[in-house]
Amino acid sequence: MTPSAPTPANPSDRWQLAAFLLVVAYLMLGFIYCVIQPPTAPPDETANLQYIRFLVDQRRLPHWEENGGGEGGYEAQHPPLTYLIEAVPYAASEGAGESYRWLAARLTVLVIGLALFAVLPPLARRLFPRDPLAAFALTATVVLMPHSLMYLTFANPDAFCLLLAAAALLVAVRIYSDAAEHPLLPWVAGLLSAVASLVKLTVAPILFLFLLAQWLRPDQKAAERWQKVCIISGVWLAGGAWWYVRNLVLYGKPFIHTKATMGPGLEYAALNGGPLRVAAVGASETYLSIWAQRGWFPAGTGESVLYCLVTLFVLLAGVGFFLRRRRSTSSPQAPDTALRFATAASVVILTFTLVSQQIAYLFVDAGWNAGGRYLLTALPEIAVLLVLGLRSLVPPALARAALGGWVALLVVMNLISANTIISALVPRDYPGWQMFDFPRQASPPDGAAAP
Questions:
Q1: How far apart are CA 155 and CA 103, in angstroms?
Q2: Which residue from 40, 143, 83, 171 is spatially nearest to 383, judged by alpha carbons?
Q3: Given 3-state DSSP classes, what are the helix, strand and coil percentages for the chain, each rounded to the nearest 5?
Q4: Taking the model in full, what pTM does it have?
Q5: Domain locations in the chain?
Q6: What DSSP element (H or E) covers 173?
Q7: Nearest Cα to 426, choosing from 267, 335, 296, 283?
Q8: Could you report the per-residue pLDDT of 271-303, keeping only the tens digit for each?
């Protein structure tokens, strides 16, 4: 009897395994970051826990004050939604002691970050339906970027901003490019806009992304366009405007910001080389902090090598992006329509985010440049542009090698970052600190101000 030939492996099975391993890598690296970082190491976590503790103990919203933030601390300037969510595990673990209550809040953010795997893969498949490597690389870029992983592993509102930004790009792409727009999409867009308004002001502009996608959608009548724009705006107003109305009534202004001690970046220009020097430092620090928290790479040659490798991939993506040929399509709903819209939207969102952040750094608060957290709202767009550029390199073998090399570099950067935290940063800044050793009383240090 002639033996049957072995069944060839199904490529889809391999990519399903790769997606599973990506989730495992996210959870493993995320848990490591949760337990190796001292409680005051992540940006503003102490103040975030102060806000959470106030909500748990007082069961009401704190009264905000411009100087110092008032009874809830300086982070009370932010809407309360994420703090209310993180307050649930903090309150539920009351009997476990302060150490594990703090850790419970961190792990909750890590688990909520799993929602990225429900958003990013569908977005990636829409943009790269015939390129599973590019689709995988897009998801990996967002969830394995050391900087985004840091914000997904401690109590803060910025992790939710990243999740909302990714969901917003997916919904906007569907609004614009679906052959038959689902009737619930405008309602979902309005709901996401309302939620964003209750999370943090920096992610609230996703409303304009939805309105732009709906307004520019081809093949729809004017009456239908106006109807859906009104649905998006109406749901946003109904669900998200109350916080700003409350601020207007209580404090005389809808947008509140705790006064910082640092002041605008330009105030330091005279002592730091002039305005151009200050602007250049702000721009360079912003670029470097996109990829990892500053100081996570080993100082000296190791840091230079890693940043040079990152910059090499960025330059390769730039070359591929600008050499990419425009694909002609036979109809507005052709498969490439989604990618064209996502590309244009990514350029606009990234430009807006960078310009607004640098303006805030120079003219409002120098702390706005610290840590690059405000670029998390544009990280999905950075991933789209980076992956699109790398996959557009020629020959195709070079594109595949670049995409695979980029994902591998992300894993290496995380392992090096974790080792740097354990071996260098903790002994230097927190001598004697042990894992799971969290303070019983968490309050912002004297003179601390909002970033």
A1: 9
A2: 143
A3: 70, 0, 30
A4: 0.90
A5: 42-429
A6: helix 158-177
A7: 296
A8: 667 778 777 878 888 888 889 988 899 989 889
